[in-house]
Amino acid sequence: MQSRTDEFLATLEIRDIEERYPRSFELYEEYSQRSIAVTIRVRKESFEKADLKTVREIVAEAEKEITGFCAWLEETKNFEHATAHYYSASLKSILVGLPAGVQVAQLFDAVLQKQIEK
Fold this sequence. Notes:
Largest sheet: none
Structural class: mainly alpha
Number of domains: 1
């Protein structure tokens, strides 16, 4: 059973995502054809309920998805490998159900934006 604090924090996370939407989220939504908010919620719930074996499976599945996303960025969006890797890596914790991924993605997005502006 989820506590009221957890529910409130989850609501803030979704609102934060909607207000400051990193470019990596937009690209991932285009790649996966799924809303990032739904992806975060589903992955987080799956991760919280998982036993050790299932956690390993979720992590392995996320690794495959990250590799596929990286390749898609290079092939479809013509990103250089390093840039595609950063965008992909910034989503890893989200894909294994960890809410810290939102802040990581925003950090990567800010770093990449500064590099582009140079």
